[in-house]
Amino acid sequence: PQDTRLFIDAHLLMLDDPALRERPLRSIREDHRNAAWAIQLERERLLEIFDRMEDAYLRAKREDIIQVTDRVLRQLVGWEPPTLQSAEGQIIIAEELSPADTVLMKKDKVLAWVTDFGAANSHAAILARSLGLPAVVGAHSASRLLRSGDMVIVDGDQGIILVAPDALVLRQYQGLQEQRQRRRRLLEEQRDLPAITADGVEIHLRANIELPDDSSLVRRMNADGVGLYRSEFLFMNRPDIPDEEEQYQAFSRVVTEMAGAPVTIRSLDIGADKGLSDDETTTHNALNPALGLRGLRLCLRRPEWFRPHLRAILRASALGPVRLMLPMLSSMSQLLQSRALVSELQAELRGEGLPCDPDMPLGIMVEVPAVAMAAHYFAGCADFFSIGTNDLIQYALAVDRGDDDVNDLFDPLHVGVLALIQHTIAAGRAKGIPVAMCGEMAANPAFTPLLLGLGLREFSMYPGAIPEVKEIIRQTSIAEAEQLAMGALAGEFSVALETGHS
């Protein structure tokens, strides 16, 4: 499959990296160590470096080091572990799982997985969510403490693992499982009901996707289209940059499968924390990659691959309603420059006889606090807003959302965060442009009434979250929600609720 090939290509590229080869070779020649010993020492050195990195995404890349060196060591010592194909009906316990491993896990084959290391925003974790697999990452010594054949319960909701549960605990979890299955069936029976509040206000529920294959799940959940297509997944974990035609095929497949429902494609959100194979596109030594050259900032500096990227999106817009969304935008000049480039490329495509939507909406992700504060200013040029709450909260509160040490400070209910959200929604409404939310806050049903009260009318989330959010919407009146929002903005919510990470 294409996804597996991309991950394997990335591992081959890593094997060819002199940084991984030179020290082991020198250790073999000068210190007379055997090859396995030399590679193990280099592996430990690299993992220590990755563990010290401040950026959560780069820390998560340590799993690639483990996977590559594991495969080399297996070849050197002549041992191969059981394959995923032999794990049907079982729970996988591992030190790490690469995305290449994860895409082999089919929901009807592997029951769940647990890893010693990992991060919620790693590729493997993202793919696991899209497959609907229960998973617990960062379980420390699970692979050493557990043995093949152990009875294990993996509670992905709570992030806990129960080993050798007694009969009472088994009955409790069997009851919970049956209860969840009944609830899932009930929600599925309501999939065709409209997302309308108790007092008759229509709400749009759209889906976040990473891969074209996710389109089928979007349709199954009866979503109102795609609110966030993370286009960077076409570029990541591969030794080359996909050309215009490959990107067009991926985008057009999603647009076609959505059959007239809108598709919002986010332009490349890639950079210091998500490097490409071209070293010039990254700044690995940046002191704070989250504030560095990434997203639209990087795209505008690299027109030689940003132009074909936009051309592919524009060509796909001829097949159905497409919206282009710009990430990590912080200035009006970036928006104007992007709009001019899109207009230029539309004319270029027309000259070549290639169709595209001349009126394709161009919007922005609101994830920089300064943009949220000046939302009325940006609403005069953008066709729509989509609030990226994960980064907005991170930047507004000066809290790294990937750092467990400050996780308690990552507070979606902080009055300042709620004020930024309300201000953005109000500014968009005043200018008559749609305002969506595509961060994890939109997927948490506990926040749904509050967001409705703040004025949000378009939610975008991972497909599996749609039924529960829809249920809450249908039970909530806008009048009640607005009262709740007034209390929240007055500081009445003193306890932060934890959300996940995207």
Automatic annotation (TrEMBL):
Residues 187-476 form the PEP-utilising enzyme C-terminal domain. Residues 7-60 form the Phosphotransferase system enzyme I N-terminal domain. Mg(2+) binds at residues 367, 391. Residues 88-159 form the PEP-utilising enzyme mobile domain. Phosphoenolpyruvate binds at residues 230, 266, 390-391, 401. One of its GO terms (molecular function) is phosphoenolpyruvate-protein phosphotransferase activity. It catalyses: L-histidyl-[protein] + phosphoenolpyruvate = N(pros)-phospho-L-histidyl-[protein] + pyruvate. It comes from the Bacteria. It holds the Pfam family PEP-utilizers_C. One of its GO terms (biological process) is phosphoenolpyruvate-dependent sugar phosphotransferase system. InterPro entries: PEP-util_enz_mobile_dom, PEP-utilizing_PTS_enzyme, PEP_util_AS, PEP_util_C, PEP_util_CS, Phosphohistidine_dom_sf, PTS_EI, PTS_EI-like. The keyword NADP does not apply. Keywords: Cytoplasm, Kinase, Magnesium, Metal-binding, Phosphotransferase system, Pyruvate, Sugar transport, Transferase, Transport. Gene3D superfamilies: Phosphoenolpyruvate-binding domains, Phosphohistidine domain, PtsI, HPr-binding domain. Its cofactor is Mg(2+). The keyword Transferase applies. NCBIfam families: PTS_I_fam (TIGR01417). This is Phosphoenolpyruvate-protein phosphotransferase.
